Each structure stands twice: as C-alpha cells, then as structure tokens.
C-alpha cells in the first residue's frame, strides 16, 4: 500500500467543519492528499478548528472547481455511497476496497476516493465515473454517516493494510529458534508413542485416538527445535527411569535360583 498515491476528494462539501474533520481523520491515518471540489465555504475558521493538528493538510489541499479537474490524473477512482443506487456497479465494503486500492497503488497508480455532499451524496453521474463503489455496511434504517466519520472508516482500513505491509511477512520471522522440521516431528511422535507405551499409558492393543489427538495438540503449538529437544530429553529420561525401576523390581537372581 502506497498511501501517498491516494487522494481523498470531497465533492461540494457544505460544512467547513466537516472539511476540518476530514483533514484530521486523514492525518491520523497517515494520508495527506486532500482535494476539495467547489467547497461551499473554504477556507473557514470552523475547518481550522476541527482540523486540530492537521491544519497542514488544509493548507496543502487542492481546491478545484470541477470533478473533472479533481480526477484528471487519477488511474483508479472509488466512489463512496450511503445507499444502493439503481445502476448495479462493482461494490465493496471498506476492507475489500482497501485491498483493491492497495493493489493499484502498489502497481504505481494514482487513486482517488470520492466523498459526496452532506445532503445528497454523489450524483449518479459522478458515481458512474468510478471504477468501484464503496459502501460502509451501516444500518439500513439510517445508513448515512457523517462525512468525516465515513472518511475516517475508509482511511482506517487503508491504514490497517499499510501497517500490515510494514510488518515482517510472518510474525514467526522474528522467532529466535527455527521451527521443527516435519522429519523431527515424526521422530518425536514415534518417541512419544514408545514412551507412553513404556509407562503403560498407551495400550498398543487399544490405542484409541490418543496419538492423533496428541499430534493435533502439538501441531497447534508449532514446536521449535529447542522445545522439541527438551521434550525428547524428557521422554529419554522417562524411559531411563522406567528401565531402572523395572530392573529394581526384577527379582534378584541367586545361585540356586531362589529369591
Ligand atoms: N444523504 C446522502 C448521504 C450523504 S453522507 C445519501 O443518501 O447519499 C455524505 C457522504 O459521506 C456520502 O456521499 C459518502 O461519501 C459518505 N458516506 C456516508 N455514509 C456512508 C456509507 N454508509 N457508506 C459509504 N459512504 C458513506
């Protein structure tokens, strides 16, 4: 996810406070490019007030008079909508949409995400210009979120992907010991079965599901080589102890065979 390739486009926003709220939502989530298409009232002290520490985003915002200008350089356009429109269109929720946006930014493309007017949203014509529609699955009885809150949710999903990208591919990558190989796990299971038989916990004549269940237990944990060696050591010690106990229990032989 290349967040710097994403521009949030607000179309004909009425309330300057919402513009400030959007700037803050964006900056909190690591996005910086804001475009305002013919805002009703901007610049405005209410926008500054709601932006809090995101005034820089307001100052850098691109203010244009038409949607054409806003998306002229864009290669993938997402349109957000609070309700179903008549024309069926590829539609995703914010999470699915963030994944698609990530694919496009990773391919070096510029992406615009359009947000509509507080009272009427985006027009059908505007939505028809989009490659993909995004709907936040809100309650149908009241589906329309406040503009800045809708932006917050979309930017949060973008953020989650960006953060996931910056982590090592697998959390396991940072583990201090290599994970046990399949061959070593098989040796361990054979040793375990043998030991459980030695201590008479497992009856080879009626093993039931003991070994499959133990396999499932250990495979859930995913042992590393060190842990595996410790367990093998415990099994060996158990077997030695059983052998010693067994020899102690053996009747001591005397010359005439008497005990
Ligand atoms: N009354 C308008 C809603 C406008 S809300 C309508 O019914 O279309 C202002 C903007 O916030 C919307 O244009 C959209 O960009 C965004 N928004 C609000 N709720 C949303 C939702 N549930 N899903 C996606 N975007 C939403």
TrEMBL record:
Q: Which residues form the signal peptide?
A: none
Query: What's the chief localization of this chain?
Result: cytoplasm
Supply the gene name: trmJ
Task: Provide this UniProt record's keywords sorted from A to Z.
Answer: Cytoplasm, Methyltransferase, S-adenosyl-L-methionine, Transferase, tRNA processing
Where is the protein found, in the record's own terms? Cytoplasm
Which EC number applies? 2.1.1.200
InterPro entries, from UniProt? Alpha/beta_knot_MTases, RNA_MeTrfase_TrmJ/LasT, SpoU_MeTrfase, tRNA_m1G_MTases_N
Q: Which organism is it from?
A: Chromatocurvus halotolerans
Which NCBIfam families does the record cross-reference, listed alphabetically? rRNA_methyl_1
Q: Name one GO cellular component term.
A: cytosol
> What's the name of the protein?
tRNA (cytidine/uridine-2'-O-)-methyltransferase TrmJ
Family, similarity comment: Belongs to the class IV-like SAM-binding methyltransferase superfamily. RNA methyltransferase TrmH family.
**Source organism's superkingdom?**
Bacteria
A Gene Ontology molecular function term for this protein is: tRNA (cytidine(32)/uridine(32)-2'-O)-methyltransferase activity
Assembly and interactions?
Answer: Homodimer.
């Amino acid at each position: 996810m290349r967040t710097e390739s994403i521009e949030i486009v607000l179309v004909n926003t009425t309330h300057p406070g919402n513009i400030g709220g959007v700037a803050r939502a964006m900056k909190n989530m690591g996005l910086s490019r804001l475009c305002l298409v013919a805002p009703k009232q901007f610049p405005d002290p209410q926008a500054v007030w709601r932006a809090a520490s995101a005034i820089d985003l307001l100052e850098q915002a691109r203010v244009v008079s038409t949607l054409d200008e806003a998306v002229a350089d864009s290669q993938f356009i997402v349109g957000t909508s609070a309700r179903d429109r008549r024309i069926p269109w590829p539609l995703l929720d914010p999470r699915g949409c963030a994944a698609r946006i990530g694919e496009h930014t990773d391919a070096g493309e510029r992406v615009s995400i359009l947000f509509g007017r507080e009272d009427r949203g985006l027009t059908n014509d505007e939505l028809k210009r989009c490659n993909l529609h995004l709907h936040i699955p809100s309650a149908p009885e009241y589906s329309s979120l406040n503009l800045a809150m809708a932006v917050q949710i979309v930017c949060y999903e973008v953020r989650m992907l960006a953060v996931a990208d910056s982590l090592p591919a697998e959390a396991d990558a940072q583990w201090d010991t290599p994970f046990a190989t399949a061959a070593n796990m098989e040796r361990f299971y054979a040793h375990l079965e043998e030991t459980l038989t030695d201590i008479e916990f497992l009856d080879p004549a009626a093993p039931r599901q003991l070994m499959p269940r133990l396999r499932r237990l250990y495979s859930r944990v995913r042992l590393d080589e060190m842990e595996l060696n410790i367990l093998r050591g415990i099994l060996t010690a158990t077997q030695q102890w059983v052998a010693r106990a067994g020899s102690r229990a053996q009747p001591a032989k005397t010359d005439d065979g008497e005990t």
